[in-house]
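hiii, so i know i said id send this last week but things got crazy w the move. better late than never?? heres the sequnce for the chain we talked about at the cafe, plus the structure i predicted for it. fair warning i was half asleep when i ran it
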Amino acid sequence: MKAEPVSKRPWLAEYPPGVPPEADVGAYGSLCELLDESFGRHARRDALACMDARLTFGDIDRLAAALAAWLQSRGLERGSRVAVMMPNLPQYLVVIAAILRAGCAVVNVNPLYTARELEHQLKDSGAAAIVVLENFAGTLEECIDATAVQHVLLTSIGDLLGLWRGGFYTFAARHLGKMVPEFRLPLDRGRSVTRFGAALRAGSRLTLQRVAVGPDDVAFLQYTGGTTGVSKGATLLHRNVVANIMQCEAWFKPMLDRVGAQQLTIVCALPLYHIFALTICALMGARFGAMNLLIPNPRDFAGFVRTLQKYRINMFPAVNTLFNALANEPAFARLDFSGLVVSNGGGMAVQQATAEKWLEITGCPVVEGYGLSETSPVATSNRLDRPEFTGTIGLPVPSTEIAIRDDSGADVGYGVAGEICIRGPQVMAGYWNRSDETAKVMTADGFFKSGDIGTMDERGYVRIVDRKKDMILVSGFNVYPNEIEQVVSLHPGVLECAAIGVPDEKAGEAVKLFVVRNDPTLAEDDIAAYCRDNFTAYKRPKYIEFRDELPKSNVGKVLRRELRGTA
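okay and structure toks below
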């Protein structure tokens, strides 16, 4: 990206020492090239720790090569989409590297999705294969016949543990495996179902055929909501993700260098299927040769703290709700934070009270940033070398421009509110097979229109003053009212409905649903049960209110803003 004059990029004067205005975004032709180099350079280092066991980068390199060869033996060709549906487990890093090496694209799936949500994502992406933790295979069973999936790779919590030093299974892996619900995946239509271990063994006897993956090949489809209520796949090319890794490296390296020669340890409690953890923890971690401390269940705060006691942590990416929950866990305050140099917050607004309490306990400030699935994700960040809470989302990271524009597309002045627009090499290629939706968010001069309303001051600091007018942000996850309303309106007892976001102490916001009955006997429990069957947990309404009618405009459009005023 051609650099603009400094006068047009005021944020450059605010950059901390050692951070360049431009990142080396073209350093690698693909993610495969970056990962191959990182795995080789750091082969003897631990790449991850999970449930008291570890895998080295060399282990991941070898396992990913075998699995990639197996994927190719299934007939998966360059550009084929492979879905991945599992929580933070060692297999995740192996699987992602294998899919990319085979020349395929990764479709990240929330493992807690319902069958309806999963079916949409598999059909929309055209996924030919899926890697799924057996605990969630029952969900896949419900919808697989409606999709194009031909190859199912089943993994279990205990997979790979026998390969770890000591060759033993942990107590957790042995016993959690007994909690797998029964399932029976259909094998008709030529579909294959293979266990993870069997695929690795078969792949180890095969030769990986290197694919000439280039910068414009698709690396990831990251699904995000839309104002239409239909989840869309943000198409992230290899060059987009490589660029963001290099941009983040340029921003983070001066601070992380303070750790010295020792290996970095990153706390990976955010889900790897989410773009924040995927880029910051997994991919940038590989670039740095860092060890990711994988936390499969961060909601078990007592267990989380016991895990943290065993490690000297250096970097802690999280969302506000997680920072706040840990800061209020008494045992957390007794940990050793002498090695912690970066606590970076994203996904949702970091609250000042949370930031102040975290700083008091850890001595490390929470540094808020901003990004989206469409920007791979990082677009802005506050400085890492300052302890004060700014209440802003910071400065554009290297090789990134931010413009604040009005409804006509014209730039507005400093301090004037407008839409936050982003231009840089990390911006997606568009929405998967949705040229109409892509056209709505991409400008003629290459900016992505975030839909978020913000201001920029004279120094280049950006502040969000309002989000997409109807989007609800629950613990860092986007919830779009149209999706909730479209699904709930299919309930035979519902005449019409509307969803809004309301403040929530723990999650930032929660979903509140207003319902007009078609059936006078319809009860709150009926709606709650229906939502449990159709939505993953963070999308489910926390509050349900019945009304005789909903406020509407003179053309019949439901006025959510009036509902927000009375909620």
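btw The longest strand covers residues 494-504. thought thatd interest u
miss u guys!!
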